[in-house]
Write a structure and sequence with these properties.
Helix content of chain B: 25-40%
CATH architecture of chain B: 3-Layer(aba) Sandwich
Number of strands of chain B: 13
Strand content of chain B: 15-25%
CATH class of chain B: Alpha Beta
Helix content of chain A: 25-40%
Structural class of chain A: alpha/beta
Strand order of the largest sheet of chain A: 3-2-1-4-16
Shape of chain A: globular
Distance between the termini of chain B: 68 Å
Structural class of chain B: alpha/beta
Strand order of the largest sheet of chain B: 2-1-3-4-8-7-13-9
Largest sheet of chain A: 5 strands, parallel
CATH superfamily of chain B: Thiamin diphosphate (ThDP)-binding fold, Pyr/PP domains
Oligomer: heterodimer
Chain lengths: ~600, ~350
C-alpha cells in the first residue's frame, strides 16, 4: 500500500465519522467538548455556524451522524449526538449578541422562494454579506415544513420562532402569505439571483376503490399535519388508521392520539424492520400505545352511506429472488378488514412545480424534476438555484441546510462573476494537544457508561396536550455524562515515521489493537495480517513507511478510541495527538477565487 | 502527571481462548516504566503467551526481585499470584514456593542486575537444581534505575550514553545457563514478539529449569550508537537459529514442511515444540554443540537467538528429591502426621 497522505483534508475528516456523515459537516466532537465544559453558548455557535437550526435539529434531525459514530462500533450504542445539540440550545445565553455584523448593501438582489430550512440558510449565509434578500412563502409564518409538518409535541413553536428569528434578524425581507404562482413573473422583477427552496409539498395519494366515496374522512398526511399546525384542525375520529411507514406516518399517528384518537394504528406494506421511519420514532409511537401492523397492502376503502367505515388489506409476505431483490407476494390468506373513522395517508411526498413555466429556459428531466448541478445547486437558468427537497426530492432538514450553504456559495460566486463549478477548498488546521507528560488538552480517558436516555414527559400528560413537548431534554449532569462518552475522534493520531524506533510500545498499549508494524502488502492482504483483522472496509488504514526495518506502520482507524495512549507510551514522540479542525467554506470573500 | 488506566473498551473481534478469557484478561495494571521500555514488550509477550496457552491465571505464580524488570509483574497477569522478593533473592523464594506447591506454573522475572550481579549465586543454584520454572531475564545491559551504569551483562567495548567504554567482560547468561544444566535455554529480543511469544510458551510448559535471556533495550540509557543492546544494534546483529511453534496437545499437527527443515520435540506435558531451522548446522538438542555455536558466533559480534537448547527428557528438582506428587497445602492430616511408628521407622533408618 502507498503511504497515507495525511495532508489531504479528506483523510482525517473521514476519521471524524460523525462530522463526515453530517451533510453540513458540523464539528460534533468540538461542540460536545464545549457542552462538557458548560460552554453552551459557544457550543451553540459552533452548531449555528454549520447547521443554522441547532435547537430545531437537536429535536428533529434524522441524525446521520449517530449510525456513523465510532462509539457504536466499540460498544452497543453511539453517543446521543442529536440530543446533546439540544442541550446547547436549551442552556445558552443570549445568542442575539453573537449574530454576525451585516456588511453595507452591495446592490445585488436575491429572491428566495419558500421560507423553509434551505431558503433560510441561503438568507443566513448571504444577508450578512450585503445582499438584499426577499423571502417569499405562502404560509403566514416562516419555517416551511419545520413549522407545518413537525408536530408541536416534538418541536415547540418558541424554538422555531427563536431560530427563524435569528435569520430574519439579519435583514432579509420576509414576504409571508405571498405565494409565488409564476416563476416567470418573479424573474421579471429583475432579481440578480433566485433560489428555489419550495420543498416537496405534495403528499402522495392512494387511489384504490372507495377513495372518492370516503374522501371526507381520508386525509393526506402532510396536509393534515399542516392544518393541525396552523390550527385549522383540532379533531380526529376515535379510530384512526395511518397508512405508511415513514417519519410523517409516525407524526400523524402520534398527533392523532392527541386529537382524540383512541384506537390509532399504523399499517404498513413492508416489514417492520424495513420501514423508513427512524427507529426512535417508531419506538416513541409504540410507547404511545400505537400498534404498527406490517405486511398489509391496502386494497380498498370501505364505506357505507357515503361515510368511510374502514380499510381492507391484502396479507403479503416478503420473497427474495436469487438476486436478493425483495418482492411482496400475497400469502393467499383472506383479506383483513380494519374498521376506522379516519384514515391518514402518509405514503410519501412528491415534488410539484406547476408554478414554473416550462418555456423560460429551465430544463426538467424525465421525472419532471429540474436539472440541478449536484454541487453547485445551479439550474439550467444560470441565475436560478435550487436546494432542499425542491432540488433532488424529499430528504430532510439537515440536507436542506447543506444545500442552502452550497447554493449560497454558488450565488455569491456567480454574482461576483466567478465560475460556480470551482468549489472553495476547506481550511484545515492540525494542532498538537500535548500539554505535558501524560497531559492532553482534551479529556482522553474514555468512560464505559452506556448511552443515557432522554427523559420523557409522563404519557398521561403529554397525550392530553398537543403542545406538551414529550422529550424533556438532558439535564446538565446527564448531558455531561453523555458528552463524556464522546471519543474525541477529531483528536487525530499523527505518526512521524522518521523518529520511530519500532519499540512496539504503541502496539502493546493500544486497547483496541489498532496498530501493527508489518511488511507492506496490498490492502486486501495487509488487512488480514494486522494485530486485529481490519474487516470494516469503510474505514481507512493509515500507512506510514520509511521505518528503520523497512516495515510499514499500519493503523486501522476503525475502532481507535483516540485515548492517546500510543502517544503517551511513545519514547520518541513519533505519535502525537493533534486536533483536526476543518473549516468548511461558506459564502463570502474567502470562498471566492483570489485574483 | 497522571496516568489513565488502559481503557476497558476493546476491539469488537477480540477472541477468547479455550477457558473463555480474552487476551485483555491477562493484562495487569498500566506500566509506570519509561515510555518505549523493552520490558513492556516482554510483558505483552507474556500476556499473549499465557492467553494462547489457556492458562488459568490463578494457577500461575509470578515472582521477581528488584529493578525495572522486577516491577513488571505488576503489569501483566493481574489475577495471578505474585511475590516481589528482596534484591536478587527471587530464585530462592521461587524454589521454596515450587517445593510447597508443585502444581502451580512458576514464572520468575528478573533483570541483568538482579540476576547477574547481586543475585547471581541464587540464579546459579536454582538453575543447577533444575527448579521447574520459566526464568526470564529482561536484559538491557545497564542499570537504568540508577541512571545508566554498565551492568554485569554489558558487553566489553560497549559504550555508555556518555561515551565511556566498558572495559570489563560481560556475563553471557545463555552460556552460563547451558553450563549449569538448564534443560531449556533460549535467547530473544523484546522487539521480536513472533520469536519471543513461542519461546515463553515453550518455557512455561517445559517441566524443568527454563531460562530465557531476553535483550530488552533501555530507551532511556542504553539505546544509543555504540551500545550493543540498542534496538538498531540487536536488529542488525540478530542471528536467529530457528523459529519455534508450540503446538498444544489438542491442536492437530500438520506436516507441511520438507524433511530436515522441521524438528518436532515432544515435552512431558504432551505439547510439541516445532523447530523450524534457520541455521542449517544448528542442533538444538546438543548441549555442547550449542555452546560451541553460540561462542563462535558471539566472537563474530552476532547475537544468537532462538531456542538454543532443549532437553526433551528434562527432569526437575521434585523428581530428584522424590517429593510427594501432592502440593503441601493439599495433604491430609494422615500424611502430615504419620504417627510415632513412622517416626520410629525414620529414626531407625538413620542409625
Amino acid at each position: 500500500m502507498k503511504a497515507t497522505d495525511i495532508s489531504r483534508p479528506d483523510y482525517f475528516h473521514k476519521v471524524v465519522d460523525c462530522q463526515w456523515a453530517c451533510p453540513a459537516h458540523t464539528p460534533v466532537p468540538e461542540y460536545i467538548r464545549l457542552i462538557a465544559d458548560r460552554k453552551y453558548t459557544e457550543a451553540y455557535l459552533v452548531n449555528w455556524k454549520s447547521n443554522v437550526f441547532p435547537g430545531i435539529l437537536g429535536r428533529t434531525c434524522d441524525r446521520p451522524c449517530e449510525p456513523a459514530c465510532r462509539r457504536g462500533r466499540v460498544e452497543d450504542e453511539p453517543v446521543a449526538i442529536c440530543r446533546l445539540k439540544r442541550v446547547a440550545a436549551d442552556n445558552k445565553d443570549d445568542f442575539a449578541l453573537w449574530l454576525p455584523p451585516i456588511a453595507p448593501k452591495n446592490g445585488k438582489r436575491i429572491a428566495c422562494i419558500g421560507a423553509g430550512p434551505a431558503s433560510l440558510t441561503v438568507a443566513r449565509d448571504l444577508a450578512p454579506l450585503g445582499y438584499e434578500i426577499d423571502v417569499y412563502d405562502g404560509d403566514a409564518k416562516a419555517g416551511g415544513m419545520i413549522r407545518s409538518q413537525i408536530p408541536r409535541f416534538r418541536l415547540p413553536e418558541e424554538v422555531i420562532d427563536e431560530e427563524v428569528g435569528y435569520v430574519t434578524a439579519l435583514g432579509p425581507v420576509m414576504h409571508l402569505g405571498e405565494k409565488i404562482d409564476s416563476l416567470k413573473e418573479l424573474l421579471s422583477k429583475s432579481y440578480d439571483a433566485v433560489f428555489v427552496g419550495t420543498g416537496a409539498p405534495r403528499g402522495r395519494d392512494l387511489n384504490i376503490p372507495g377513495r372518492l366515496e370516503g374522501s371526507a374522512n381520508i386525509h393526506i398526511g402532510i396536509d393534515w399535519l399542516s392544518n393541525v399546525s396552523f390550527g385549522h384542525n383540532d379533531k380526529v375520529g376515535k379510530r384512526v388508521i395511518v397508512l405508511g411507514g415513514g417519519n410523517t406516518a409516525m407524526d400523524c399517528c402520534r398527533t392523532a392520539r392527541r386529537l382524540g384518537g383512541e384506537d390509532v394504528k399504523v399499517i404498513v406494506r413492508s416489514g417492520y424492520e424495513e420501514m423508513k421511519a427512524s427507529p426512535w420514532e417508531k419506538e416513541d409511537a409504540i410507547a404511545e400505545d400505537i400498534p404498527i401492523l406490517n405486511f398489509l397492502v391496502p386494497k380498498a376503502f370501505t364505506h357505507k352511506d357515503g361515510k368511510l367505515t374502514g380499510v381492507t388489506f391484502e396479507k403479503v409476505k416478503a420473497v427474495h429472488d436469487a438476486g436478493g431483490r425483495r418482492t411482496l407476494v400475497t400469502t393467499g390468506e383472506p383479506d383483513q378488514h380494519f374498521e376506522c373513522d379516519d384514515v391518514l395517508i402518509a405514503v410519501g411526498q412528491e415534488n410539484a412545480f406547476p408554478w414554473i413555466e416550462r418555456d423560460i429556459g429551465l430544463q426538467f428531466d424525465k421525472w419532471d424534476m429540474p436539472v440541478v448541478g449536484e454541487e453547485t445547486m445551479q439550474s439550467t437558468l444560470p441565475h436560478v438555484f435550487f436546494g432542499g427537497d425542491a432540488a433532488f426530492g424529499p430528504k430532510n432538514i439537515i440536507w436542506a441546510v447543506a444545500h442552502g450553504h452550497a447554493a449560497a456559495i454558488s450565488i455569491d460566486k456567480f454574482l461576483n462573476g466567478e465560475d460556480v463549478t470551482e468549489r472553495p477548498a476547506p481550511g484545515v488546521t492540525v494542532i498538537s494537544q500535548k500539554m505535558g507528560i501524560h497531559e492532553w488538552s482534551y479529556d482522553n480517558d474514555p468512560v464505559n457508561d452506556p448511552r443515557y436516555k432522554v427523559p420523557h414527559r409522563e404519557k398521561s400528560i403529554s397525550l392530553k396536550n398537543m403542545k406538551a413537548e414529550v422529550e424533556l431534554g438532558f439535564d446538565e449532569i446527564t448531558a455531561f455524562r453523555e458528552a463524556q462518552r464522546c471519543l474525541n475522534c477529531d483528536v487525530q493520531t499523527v505518526f512521524t515515521a522518521k523518529v520511530c524506533i519500532e519499540c512496539d510500545a504503541c502496539v502493546d498499549i493500544c486497547p483496541t489493537d489498532c496498530i501493527t508494524f508489518a511488511d507492506n502488502g496490498d490492502e486486501a492482504e495487509l488487512r488480514t495480517r494486522l494485530k486485529a483483522p481490519a474487516a470494516n472496509l469503510t474505514q481507512d488504514l493509515y500507512i506510514a513507511d520509511g521505518l528503520p526495518t523497512g516495515r510499514v506502520m499500519a493503523k486501522d482507524e476503525d475502532v481507535c478510541l483516540h485515548c492517546g495512549l500510543c502517544a503517551e507510551r511513545c519514547p520518541t514522540g513519533a505519535w502525537d495527538m493533534q486536533k483536526y479542525i476543518i473549516n468548511i467554506a461558506q459564502a463570502g470573500s474567502a470562498c471566492r477565487t483570489r485574483t | 502527571m497522571t496516568y489513565i488506566a488502559k481503557p476497558q473498551l476493546h476491539h469488537p473481534s477480540l477472541p477468547s481462548n479455550a477457558i473463555g478469557l480474552t487476551r485483555r484478561d491477562y493484562e495487569g495494571r498500566i506500566s509506570t516504566l519509561c515510555a518505549g521500555c523493552g520490558h513492556d514488550s516482554i510483558s505483552a509477550a507474556i500476556v499473549t503467551a499465557c492467553f494462547e496457552l489457556d492458562l488459568q491465571p490463578h494457577r500461575l505464580a509470578k515472582l521477581s526481585g528488584i529493578g525495572c524488570s522486577s516491577k513488571t509483574p505488576d503489569y501483566f497477569l493481574g489475577q495471578s499470584h505474585g511475590f516481589n522478593a528482596v534484591h536478587g533473592r527471587m530464585p530462592s523464594v521461587l524454589t521454596g514456593a515450587n517445593l510447597a506447591n508443585r502444581d502451580l506454573v512458576f514464572l520468575g522475572v528478573s533483570g541483568d542486575g538482579d540476576t547477574a550481579s547481586i543475585g547471581i549465586g541464587q540464579f546459579v543454584h536454582s538453575v543447577r537444581r533444575g527448579v521447574n520454572m520459566c526464568y526470564i531475564v529482561e536484559n538491557n545491559g545497564v542499570y537504568g534505575l540508577t541512571k545508566g551504569q554498565f551492568s554485569a551483562t554489558s558487553d566489553k567495548g560497549s559504550k555508555s550514553k556518555r561515551g565511556a567504554e566498558n572495559t570489563e567482560s560481560g556475563i553471557d547468561l545463555v552460556a552460563l545457563a547451558l553450563q549449569l544444566g538448564a534443560t531449556y535455554v533460549g535467547r530473544s529480543f523484546s522487539g521480536d514478539k513472533e520469536q519471543l511469544v513461542p519461546l515463553i510458551k515453550g518455557a512455561l510448559t517445559h517441566g524443568g529449569a527454563a531460562v530465557l535471556d531476553v535483550i530488552s533495550p533501555c530507551v532511556a540509557f542504553n539505546n544509543h550508537a555504540g551500545s550493543t543492546k540498542s534496538f538498531d544494534y540487536v536488529r542488525e546483529h540478530n542471528d536467529a537459529v530457528n523459529r519455534l511453534d508450540v503446538i498444544l496437545g489438542r491442536t492437530p499437527i500438520k506436516t507441511d514442511y520438507a524433511p530436515g527443515e522441521v524438528r518436532d520435540v515432544t515435552q512431558h506435558d504432551g505439547s510439541v515444540l516445532r523447530l523450524k531451522k534457520i541455521a542449517a548446522d544448528y542442533v538444538a538438542t546438543d548441549r555442547n554443540a550449542a555452546a560451541a555455536y553460540i561462542q563462535e558466533h558471539q566472537a563474530k559480534g552476532e547475537i544468537v537467538t532462538g531456542l538454543l537448547y532443549i532437553d526433551p527428557e528434562a527432569s526437575d528438582l521434585h523428581d530428584r528429591l522424590g517429593t510427594t506428587r501432592v502440593p503441601l497445602n493439599a495433604l491430609g492430616t494422615e500424611d502430615l502426621t504419620p504417627g510415632a511408628q513412622a517416626l520410629a521407622r525414620i529414626n531407625a533408618g538413620l542409625r
